Amino acid sequence: MQGKIVKGIAGFYYVHVVESGVYECKAKGIFRKEKVKPLVGDNVEIEVLKEAEKQGNIIHIFPRENELVRPAVANIDQALVLFAVLRPTPHYNLLDRFLVMMERKGIPVVLCFNKADIAKEEQIEELQAIYEKCGYPLVFTSALEGKNIDYVRTILEGKTTAIAGPSGVGKSSLINVLTPTANMETGSISRKIERGKHTTRHSELFPIDKASYIMDTPGFSSLYVNDFVKEELKKYFPEFIEYEGTCRFQGCDHVHEPGCMVKEAVEDGRIHSIRYRSYIEMYKELKNRRRY
């Protein structure tokens, strides 16, 4: 029997088999021996031990398309990077770290800004000005009022999508609207600190239909982009790519070099200064990490 791991807790893996339901499984000892840990999102083969109790063993893990370390998940077709338009106001550097992480893994991104019902037009326009130039599809939603939810459904169709974003932006609310059976605990925003309480404690996949899954991942408050060299970083900013090879110096890092076409594009407004600021901050972080 083949299925997909939708949840893993304390050594038990819950495998969703289309038309048959969810089986509680243990992983065979061979995986431990080979130091392979099953991940949420893995496509697996199971042997059924007790059909009535829906219990079984995972006997084979199929090759992974991709894998994220944090959160530890596999076979993601795309990421829905979710932030709120406000309450809390987007933390641009954190958002850009999410985008860099997904670019590194080659995972396509859809940028979703929730709580559009409480936003002013100029706040939405500012986000469009920053991120449309990066080439990411943008969608503004309201989980509360159902705004653009049908459009989100079409984006998710036939894919396994990870929802990634900080706490308090409405991830659980959005999943509840998309998959009412998920019945997720929605967190209340702490007015005092304008951050959400962490309501997601583990990664979990929710079937939307036979071929579509949505994955909720634990909330992030910080994301360290530090497992590669600083010279690589520019590859993960899509809006820089058209200027590659046009700078005065070959291998220009777009930081201090004279005759840099990326810096010129920032000055002209072709690349947004907020994105460039994120790039410089991450670049310095990578540079300092190498030094120490």
Describe the structure.
With 292 residues, the protein is α/β, with parallel strands linked by helices. It contains seven helices and 15 strands. The protein has a six-stranded mixed β-sheet, sandwiched between helices. It has a five-stranded mixed barrel with strand order 1-2-3-5-4. Helix 2 packs across helix 7. The longest helix has 19 residues. The chain is globular and about 70 Å long. The protein starts with a strand and ends with a helix. About 6% of the residues have low confidence.
Secondary-structure blueprint:
Elements: E1 2-9, E2 12-17, E3 21-27, H1 29-33, E4 43-50, E5 55-61, E6 67-68, E7 73-74, E8 78-84, H2 92-105, E9 109-114, H3 121-131, E10 138-140, H4 149-156, E11 160-164, H5 171-178, E12 189-190, E13 195-196, E14 204-207, E15 213-216, H6 261-268, H7 273-291
Parallel strand pairs: 3-5, 8-9, 8-11, 9-10, 11-15
Antiparallel strand pairs: 1-2, 1-4, 2-3, 4-5, 6-7, 12-13, 14-15
